[in-house]
Amino acid sequence: MRDYLGALLTMKILVAVKRVVDYNVKVRVKSDHSNVDIANVKMSMNPFDEIAVEEAVRLKEKGIAEDITVVSIGPAKCQETLRTALALGADQAIHVETDANLEPLAVAKCLKALVEREQVQLVILGKQAIDGDNNQTGQMLAALLDWPQATFASAVECQADKVAVTREIDGGLETLSLTLPAVITTDLRLNEPRYASLPNIMKAKKKPLNTIPVTELNIDVSPRLTTVKVEAPAERDAGIKLESVEQLVEKLKVEGLI
Amino acid sequence: MEDFLLLDNQLADDEIILRDNLRRWVDAEVIPKMPNAFEQAIFPKEFIQQTADLGLLGMTLPQQYGGSEASYITYGLACQELERGDSGLRSFVSVQSSLCMYPIFRYGSEQQKQRFLKKMAQAKLIGCFGLTEPDAGSDPASMKTTAKKVAGGWLLNGTKMWITNAPIADLAIVWAKTSEGIRGFIVETEFKGFSCNEISHKLSLRASATGELVLQDVFVPDENYLPGSDRGLGAPLSCLNQARYGIAWGAIGAAMACYEKAVEYSLERKQFDKPIASFQLIQKDLAEMLTEIVKAQCFNLQLGKLKQENKASAVMVSMAKMNACREALNIARQARNILGANGISLEYHIIRHMNNLETVFTYEGTDNVHHLIVGRHITGISAFE
Question: Which CATH fold topology does A4-254 show?
């Protein structure tokens, strides 16, 4: 990895993708308030993970990466999500099968095991999944691996064994320089994912996809958290339009808000 | 929209991936452009290369001819998603794939396949299909276009009307009467004596290029004669059968777009202090719309499986096309009604779909003729021959 050419020729990327409720679906809370109802609901790849796949494919197209492995952890249906990633340009896929709902720490531990097994130099993940909104997996993975991390990437620039990552922060843009191996999590503006063409979808059917049971990784994936109650956000009444500041002040007084 | 009857369980992963990808493309790249394209009566030219890049042209053909060997269900799903965008876009893909690439694949010589198909899959060559004439619609056998054998080729004379893609085409699959019956020819639009007049003043399929083909002593060399077309009218009808299958899926795509818009609107629109979705008459409409969409989807799915196994008959395809187009048109009209005045604005897309479906209802076999095809199947008596 220290050698410039070596880095160019051998860089392997691991991209983690999660199958989540499609962003267009209006979720409903189950009647027992234990969770949202995802039975028979449209599922798709977490949008931030699509961006992670796209970034990996672009690094490969630029000749910086040689090989892209995508991984998804979850039930059998995750294979469809992995095939989507393969159709977008990943080379092979690993499906870690489990019907349990893994928390970020368990996911990070699984990914660490795979990173070590697959000998990757760069891990790209979405900054968060749009279902749990935890925004933890990438950070935990970097800590477990003791690798540098750059979260919320809006630009990624690889040079030899370094990677420069631009992040959108409150004051403007911040650019970090990391030494590979590293963990990057993607923000929305990093890229615009491509559309998979039909020939690539058909080619993806023939790319390797290995399924391993989560137990094979010998990791304690039991949950650390208990969900007490899930509730839909309170419904908001529509606002009203006022003509002037005076009216606004009066209205706030009447409502007892000032 | 909601997969009410869990029909996705019947689909293969690659079929779902293609559909979902195409849905994303149509939402982002097609729908925002359609109100203007429709109003200005322009077929957005960028769709030509984009549909080729997505691999949608001739997708069921073998890879050696530029196809992807996609299943018929994949082709159907693609038509459904494209027509969720606009019937004109789906028509472009149908004509190129089912009416132009398919006849060359099925009735063409190996040399013709090599020469045309890959370029057509890449959209380097665009085709159109010339069967209908000013005085020959439902009765194509009464066509007046003739092909006379001359040394080294054929001399074609006649006029073809209502030809989708004609103004943007590089070649036309023209059907003409020879002394031995109806035969097919690949007429290149640069041949001497060939001309095309664009048809304007349409109030339906406005975002689709339609034209009239005029053939005046057009010399077509022997190498452009489709050798397999010697079965007569059966050849062009088999092409229409391919296209009608896609239309059955496509029309329901347009219906889905209208239904979704109607649901969304009726939940947001408040009258008498409550969403209009809370009124029984609206709910009845929505329930009927969803029911008809799901029924037609089941029909399409079963028909797609049969087509894949080469077991789908022409009468099955007629019934699917007839049913899907009628129900889609009704759904579009109901949705238009639910949106009230907003229903006629291009901004809400429904009036565009509704006007398009007026064409889809009668092209590639009118509703009446498809009823008669089904009627002939039931009774054994032809009411039109």
Answer: Rossmann fold (3.40.50)
The count of residues in chain A is: 258
Do B259 and B289 contact (CB within 8 A), yes or no?
A: yes
pTM equals 0.93
> Which of B3, B4, B13, B68 is most worth mutating to test chain A (most A CB atoms within 10 A of its CB)?
B13
Q: Which two tokens stand for residue B261?
A: 């818009």
Eight-state DSSP code of residue B95: I
Domains of chain B: 7-121 (1.10.540.10), 127-231 (2.40.110.10), 234-379 (1.20.140.10)
CB contact under 8 A, B17 and A44: no
Task: Give contacts of B25 with chain A, Cβ < 8 Å.
Answer: 195
Q: How far is Cα A194 from Cα A61, in angstroms, rounded to an integer?
A: 13
How confident is the model over B277-305, as a mean pLDDT?
A: 98
User: What's the distance, Cα to Cα, between the start and end of chain A in Å?
Assistant: 63
CA distance A69 to A87: 12
Q: Which of A42, A44, A201 sits opposite B14 (nearest CB)?
A: A201
Is A126 in contact with A57 (CB distance < 8 Å)? no
Q: Is B13 on the interface with A (CB under 8 A)?
A: yes
* pLDDT digit string, tens, across residues A86-125: 999 999 999 999 999 999 999 999 999 999 999 999 999 9
- Comparing CB atoms, the residue among A80, A199, A204 nearest residue B16 is A80
For residue B166, CA distances in Å to B95, B130, B163, B187, B240 come to 10, 9, 6, 12, 17
Domain spans of chain A?
Answer: 4-254
Beta-carbon contacts of B197 under 8 Å, excluding residues fewer than 6 positions away, are B211, B212, B214
Q: Report yes or no: A144 and A109 within 8 Å, Cβ to Cβ.
A: yes
Tell which residue, B146, B117, B134, B136, has the closest CA to residue B57.
B117
* Angle value at C-alpha B189, between B176 and B99, nearest 5 degrees: 55
Is the pLDDT at B72 greater than 90? The verdict is yes
Mutate: best of B21, B49, B77, B294, partner A, most A CBs <10 A: B21
